[in-house]
Amino acid sequence: MKPLVLAICIFAFPAAILAQTAAPANAPAKADSKKPVQKPSSEIRRSALKTVEQVTPIDEDPNINLTAEDLEIAKRVFVGTIACELGNSVTLTPSTRRPGFFVVQTKGARFSMHPVESRTGAIRLEDPKRGALWLQLGNKSMLMSQKLGQRLADECMSPEQITLADELKKNPRPGLLDSPVSATGNAPASAPTSPAAAK
Prior knowledge:
The chain has a domain at 67-170: Beta Barrel (Lipocalin), CATH 2.40.128.50. Helices cover 30% and strands 23% of the residues. It has helices spanning 2-21, 41-55, 68-75, 159-170, 195-198; strands at 80-83, 89-94, 102-106, 109-116, 123-127, 132-136, 141-145, 150-156. The protein has an eight-stranded antiparallel sheet.
């Protein structure tokens, strides 16, 4: 009898231990086994941009020194909120830290820019750290990401640019390949003949 009770105990004891340690099949999973919630890429991008700005804002970068010509260009930059195509807008604000620098903002992006010499005569602002460019022409402006290779905002027009664009529609400027036109609107007269040639 004792060997029988002993045998039952030997077999029953491990089964009882296993029953206590095994989790029920329908028990909820532990909190630490859950996957971490991933942030959307746009939120990650925004936090990365903030980190870059907090580390070294471009208008505090001692390696960037503006020339007198750069400061003159900065005086011609249109500031304020400028309407662009497709309902977009770009806001340009002069920096409170250093003259000649601008904060350029559009939906989802913020840049700190300064004037850069342009061979074409266009006003050009750049954020070299973030690879962004603001190009201000006579009749429109655009914001480009050189890193992405695309325009972030196009056909942006300040009130002054709208006025010039309307004027160009009424009185278009001649193209490079057009023949020159005199002030009277006629083709240039041929060179006058000399009296000797008239004889």
